[in-house]
Write a structure and sequence with these properties.
With 459 residues, the chain is α/β, with parallel strands linked by helices. It folds into three domains: 202 residues, Rossmann fold; 165 residues, Rossmann fold (3-Layer(aba) Sandwich); 74 residues, Alpha-Beta Plaits. Helices cover 38% and strands 18% of the residues. The chain contains 17 helices and 17 strands. Strands 3-4-2-5-6-1-7 form a seven-stranded parallel beta sheet, sandwiched between helices. A six-stranded parallel beta sheet has the order 8-13-12-9-11-10, with helices on both faces. The chain has a four-stranded antiparallel beta sheet with strand order 15-16-14-17, covered by helices on one side. Strand 15 and strand 16 form a beta hairpin. The radius of gyration is 23 Å and the shape is globular.
């Protein structure tokens, strides 16, 4: 039987928060990494997204927190703003019973001036991206002299995105006497070297990504090089998922394949590192709330996505790294739901990749049967559109205000309103496609809480 959180010596406020959020049993990474972290040891953890690593290092940070000390005591570096926001949100959830805890999320895409003001008011824990954190340090606004714990989250992804130089520059500004926690899904030589430079005798904890064989079905299809894109369309038309995540190896492949799918009737969006932050945010909003059916992404962009479960993952080209394949297929067959992961093998060098992947998995992947083409992707027209309201929490906007305006005042049926994502400055609402224009028309003429707002439909 897995160990429970009751077996871990934590401050009472953390046990109360854990009970409130419903955590009971420790995940493998939590069971292995929490004890040495609570002892103050450096730890390198190998674990994938969804393994519970954020709660693991989050509890360690909060356990060591000294509320009588106003300075920044912990810094968490993340590769993207999306991940930083997720980490900060989870830390706030775990800290809910510890009064007066200040947790700041400092990333690009937000005004520097407001972040400087936030820092001036103090932050016990700072979560952010290397670029913005480095800028705030060099400008003299983020003082790390009181730092006790440094966390490098998804270090391999920061390597892929070219942030390691910035990370090392930040580490140089941290106190030499500190605890350093490094988490990474993979450990290439560059990450091993980074660990050696920034950590002191770290404890190594390895938890392989787990795929439930009873929930996840894998298939491989072969084709000639010029037939790849059409085979991908035929596979989607044959299996008819409501949504699918499609993996490509390069940014250019993402753009081209998303355009190819869109030309055949789907609502497909590309997600990769060349997108501006605002465009990334809007792509993710549309996919997570059901306003886009296909997300075509690179490995780097797709890691850390907050998508509970997907019916299908489609791998347009096999990765050279077997571990990467495991993380890709792990995006489906989650949350107790069945999933399907299909890989397309075309170029001769992909056969060698397939052999290495099967050796890593310890079994062969079944080959798919004959697929009859000819079908379009019109069935992948999503049920929703995303209404983006350019006001948020800092404007005193609440979800109930938006719901009341759209249902009571605009006359939309309650069932036409789906997921609602409220941030400091925006509110994104999934609206049933047939009612989206009506909702926008009302907001252009009407009001929310007697206040005019700006809004637009995404996509």
């Amino acid at each position: 039987m897995p160990p429970t959180f009751d077996s871990i010596p934590l401050r009472p406020e953390l046990h109360e928060a854990i009970a409130h959020v419903g955590f009971e049993e420790l995940t493998p990474i939590q069971a292995a990494a929490l004890p040495p972290m609570l002892q103050g040891l450096d730890v390198t953890g190998q674990a994938s997204t969804g393994s519970g690593k954020t709660a693991a290092f989050g509890l360690a940070l909060l356990q060591s927190l000294d509320l009588d000390q106003a300075g920044t005591q912990a810094l968490v570096l993340c590769p993207t703003r999306e991940l930083a926001d997720q980490v900060a949100a989870e830390l706030r959830s775990l800290a809910q019973r510890i009064t007066n805890t200040r947790i700041l999320s400092l990333c690009g895409g937000h005004p520097l001036q407001s972040q400087r003001k936030d820092l001036a008011r103090g932050g016990h824990i700072v979560v952010g991206t290397p670029g913005r954190i480095g800028k705030l340090i060099s400008g003299g606004h983020l003082d790390l002299s009181a730092l006790r714990i440094l966390v490098l989250d998804e270090a391999d992804r920061m390597l892929d995105m070219g942030f390691i130089g910035e990370v090392e520059a930040i580490v140089e500004r941290c106190p030499t006497k500190r605890q350093t926690l490094l988490f990474s899904a993979t450990f290439p030589d560059a990450i091993e070297g980074l660990s050696a430079r920034v950590q002191h005798q770290p404890q190594r904890v390895v938890v392989q990504a787990q795929v439930a064989p009873d929930l996840l079905r894998q298939l491989v299809y072969r084709c000639e090089p010029g037939e790849r894109n059409q085979l991908l369309v035929d596979l989607l038309a044959h299996h008819r998922p409501q949504q699918a995540l499609v993996f490509c190896e390069t940014r250019g492949d993402c753009d081209r394949l998303a355009a190819f799918f869109s030309g055949r009737g789907a609502t497909a969006l590309a997600l990769h590192g060349l997108l501006e932050q605002r465009d990334r945010d809007e792509v993710l909003l549309q996919f997570t709330n059901g306003s886009a059916s296909l997300l075509v992404a690179t490995n780097v962009a797709a890691r850390g996505l907050d998508i509970p479960s997907l019916p299908m993952v489609l791998i347009a080209e096999l990765s050279p790294e077997p571990e990467s394949h495991l993380h890709r297929i792990g995006r489906t067959g989650r949350a107790g739901e069945a999933g399907l992961a299909i890989s397309v093998v075309s170029a001769p060098n992909e056969l060698g990749r397939l052999e290495r992947i099967e050796a890593f998995l310890g079994h062969s992947i079944p080959r798919g049967g004959e697929i009859h083409g000819g079908g379009g992707l019109g069935f992948l027209t999503p049920p929703n559109r995303t209404l983006l309201i350019l006001s948020g929490r800092q404007d005193k906007l609440r979800r109930g205000d938006v719901l009341g305006a759209l249902v009571k005042d605009a006359g939309l049926p309650p069932e036409a309103i789906g997921r609602m994502d409220l941030t400091a400055r925006t509110c994104a609402v999934a609206v049933a496609r047939e009612h989206a224009t009506q909702a926008l028309a009302y907001l252009k003429q009407g009001r929310i809480k007697k206040r005019k707002v700006r809004a637009r439909l995404l996509g």
